[in-house]
Amino acid sequence: MADLQVELNATAEAGELDQPSVRPPEPPPISEPGPAHEPAPGPARAQDPLGRARALLAAHPVADGYSGLPWTLRGLPWYDLELGDSAVDADVPRLREGGVGAQFWSVHVPQSITGDRVLGATLEQIDLVKHVVGGHSDGLRLARTASEVADARHCGRIATLIGPARAEAIGDSLATLRALHALGLCSLTLSGTSWTGPEGLTPFGEEVVRELNRLGVLAELSGATEATAHRVLAVSKAPVLFARSGARALRDAPANLPDDLLTALGAAKGLCLVPLAAEQTGSSIHEVADHLDHVRRLAGPESVGLAGMYDTSAAHPDGLADASRYPHLVAELMDRDWPEADLARLTWGNAQRVLRGADFTARAARERRRRQAAG
To answer: Which residue ranges are recorded for the region named Disordered (predicted)?
Structure first.
């Protein structure tokens, strides 16, 4: 705990870092050229679905919504994420091979940790994330806003966002929430507290949501009760996030969402990140794609994304054993005739939109406070 350092650098303004001084080269086009412009494509170009998937991911990398790497690394005596490490699912080489451009690193702590110990363990997790990213700066870079994520990508780094964290870590204290945000927390899971439950949010719970909006921290709802989820959708001015939820209509598993909640999420322009976890979305790439189809149909193409669930206790579907396998899932969706625009939203655009929405909402709140103080 003594090593914990509070970073006081101001968050970059949205869009401030989006345009590098030297723009990286454009990736090769994904669409196949017509015969009038160049010779007919050979078999490797025309028939290779993985080649097409990798070309798309070069332009629109995966923003992976849930990684359990921090807790996994706590149990390892030694690791090297830059060169590759067989003890983890998502080292830097496999992230690059899988076309991953950003990851949310969960700082959830096990449910066996309770009471006042949750905050201390969460702080240790955040400290570990900063230490690991700092020690692997050739491949990773901390980020908390959409512009910082884009800047990391333009610099050839994989953006690392801190969160979600368990809401028990803040107890009944908005000051603790603000302190965690100052340390870089980007997302908080709203479940398992005295102010969330079967009846929804208490008045204090609603104030937590408003404070999340003011700070630019995403409200994360996987595992929350349906009443809580619907109330957060009504109260929040910023987009909300389900970081690891599939479709309950296809598989009745914990944290999966019923159709009415998926529809409400789409209407609120939130984001459902479908997990690559066999318990929730099936044991094959085909079944995962079924969940993605279902969420896209009900919530809309602007409200579906991906959660790798790598380096967690979850078993992964066949063919998706580690982070290098994302192109295989994208190839499956291409075979299902997903438009390129919807694939680009799925992998990268929707996560960026939600991060921008949180940042814009926070800046608007700061401006309101500034006007009130001046008036």
So the answer is: 1-48
Residue % of the chain over a pLDDT of 90: 83
Q: Classify residue 1: in a domain, yes or no.
A: no
- Which CATH number does the domain housing residue 139 bear? 3.20.20.140
Give a yes or no: residue 353 inside a domain.
yes
Rounded CA separation 239/106 (Å):
19
- CA torsion sign for 172, 257, 299, 245 is positive
Closest of 213, 109, 210 to residue 165, by C-alpha: 109
Average pLDDT over residues 308-316: 97
Please list, in sequence order, all residues whose beta carbon lies within 8 angstroms of the beta carbon of residue 22, skipping any fewer than 6 positions away.
none
Tokens of 57: 């991911």
* Rounded CA separation 148/67 (Å): 19
Q: Domain range for residue 300?
A: 62-374
User: Tens of pLDDT along 227-239?
Assistant: 999 999 999 999 9
Whole-angstrom distance, CA of residue 153 vs CA of residue 27: 13
Task: Note the pLDDT tens digit of each residue in 10-30.
Answer: 333 334 434 444 444 444 444
Residue 16 forms part of a structural domain: no
Cis peptide before 164 (omega within 30 of 0): yes
Total of domains in the chain: 1
